[in-house]
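Task 17 of the worksheet. Students: predict the tertiary structure of the chain below and write it out as structure tokens. Keep your answer in the requested format; marks are given for formatting as well as content.
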Amino acid sequence: MSTDGVRRTAGLIDRPVPLRQAAYQALLDLIITRELEPGRHLVEQELAVLLGVSRQPVREALQRLNNEGWVDLRPGYGAFVHVPSESEADQLLTVRALLETESARLAAREAGPDDVERLWGLWRVGVAAVDSDDLDVVVTANADFHRTVTEVAGNQVLAELAAQVERRVRWYYAPVARIRGRASWDEHASMIEAIARHDAEGAAELMRDHADRTRRMYHEEVDGKQAESAQADSGQDAGK
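Model answer:
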């Protein structure tokens, strides 16, 4: 694995935190943002240099990431960023839609003026990021928006369940964030308006449709890349 093109992470490791935890969090962040993309070979020594630590905390971090399904450890070959199947993605995004649809419904019932203004503030951040093509901020702002809707809903169990899938949702959202673009934030605006007028069923329907569009676009993007890869492989075979 070459770490060319991966941002230097000096400062990413906070020394007072146990190194194995810091290495784990740093690598997880790089995986979620797809700076370490699915299928990438992860070499302990190169990661240790990248993070400014020894190989031991990197090895422990990779083991934990393997246990959590972010990394695949292949005997004799090494560690690789997990490549999610379409079935995995579909299952997660379906669960996300169920959780966030209920979050939107409850948020519309519970939201006060300050909650609505908080959502509009996040919306403005997201739109500005789309306009400046700052993909990292777009992905983060999207996660913040959805998390805030769940917080406004006021159901602690729902919030805990949503938190369990949030990081993987960010991972799946990253490839389609630019494609979804402003349309996603237009949908967010419609949700805020429904929440502000306490239209519980309207907010739920908007969230359900919004999540389903993201799910379908993810599959279209994956299918398109697979077709491109197959076409490239076919062209190489023909040239032999």
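Marker's comment: The chain has two domains: 19-81, 86-220. Residues 19-81 form a domain with the Arc Repressor Mutant, subunit A fold (CATH 1.10.10.10).
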